Amino acid sequence: LSIKITANEKVALVGESGCGKSTFVNLLMRFYDVDAGEVLLDGVNVKDYNLHDLRKAVSLVMQEPIIFNYSILENILYGKLDASNSEVQAASEISNCQEFIHNEDFQEFDNQADSLLNAMTSHKQELVAIIGQEKFDEEVKTLGMIKMIDEKKGVFQAVEGDIDVREEALKDKNLHHGFKTQCGIRGGKLSGGQKQRVAIARTIIRQPRVLMLDEATSALDEDNQKLVQDALDKAMVGRTTIIIAHRLSTIQNCSKVFVLEEGKV
């Protein structure tokens, strides 16, 4: 397998399921290392990078984003803990988060673990029939662990009731109170498109040199696809971008399309 991507180039990686597209991502991110050969970033073997620096330079937006049960602000700041409010605002604008944050357009969802546990227990038979006993037990175990944690405390909450105790210099402008909205367990208060846009804002605020999109819009409906794709298009500007996708519409503006088949390009 031999692929060369130049700086600020936008390329696509396509192929059948199981051909190695996600493995390519895993190797570049160093989720695991190659057995032979080498992966170079700016001519330097990725093994020679400090892992924190590498993952700051290379950001990944996945099909199913990870959203924590903290506020929208904290979820965005997870990308850069010392970001200013101005940076948060700019990232949320580029990622098309502003509208739903300002309108507080969130799903009605009881995110308390004990409420969810009670609901699951009440409908155990029906749920097991749909998702299976193993998956049911896994979800119950997860909720049980979450229930043991004080869900109101976030990454920056050192004082009860204060969700943002960053240095005052970082609070260089006021943010809309919608940023304080708790996202719920697994982002349950946000729609699929909203979760993806928050994840994009988190990526943008890191200012990565390389952006990888692994089926980033494939799980969304048509309306959300357009909003998220617009956010991604803005995030790609000035960055090397690698797009893994099945839909032709998401790769039509790429300068190159690499097709993986049986481990070869």
In short:
This protein is an alpha/beta fold. It has 10 helices and 7 strands. It folds into 2 domains: 10-111 and 151-260, P-loop containing nucleotide triphosphate hydrolases (Rossmann fold, 3-Layer(aba) Sandwich), CATH 3.40.50.300; 113-147, no CATH class.
Task: Describe it.
- The chain contains 10 helices and 7 strands.
- The chain has a 5-stranded parallel β-sheet, sandwiched between helices. It has a two-stranded antiparallel ribbon with strand order 2-3.
- It has helices at 21-28, 51-57, 72-77, 85-94, 98-103, 113-122, 124-131, 133-147, 192-206, 222-236, and strands spanning 10-15, 40-41, 44-45, 58-61, 210-214, 240-244, 256-260.
- By secondary structure, the chain is an alpha/beta fold.
- The model is unreliable at 157-162 (pLDDT under 50).
- The chain has 2 domains: 10-111 and 151-260, P-loop containing nucleotide triphosphate hydrolases (Rossmann fold, 3-Layer(aba) Sandwich); 113-147, no CATH class.
- It is globular, with a radius of gyration of 20 Å.
- Helices cover 38% and strands 11% of the residues.
- GO terms for molecular function: ATP binding; ATP hydrolysis activity; ATPase-coupled transmembrane transporter activity.
- One of its GO terms (cellular component) is membrane.
- InterPro entries: AAA+_ATPase, ABC_transporter-like_ATP-bd, ABC_transporter-like_CS, P-loop_NTPase, Type_1_exporter.
What topology does this entry show?
Layout: E1 10-15, H1 21-28, E2 40-41, E3 44-45, H2 51-57, E4 58-61, H3 72-77, H4 85-94, H5 98-103, H6 113-122, H7 124-131, H8 133-147, H9 192-206, E5 210-214, H10 222-236, E6 240-244, E7 256-260
Parallel strand pairs: 1-6, 1-7, 4-5, 5-6
Antiparallel strand pairs: 2-3
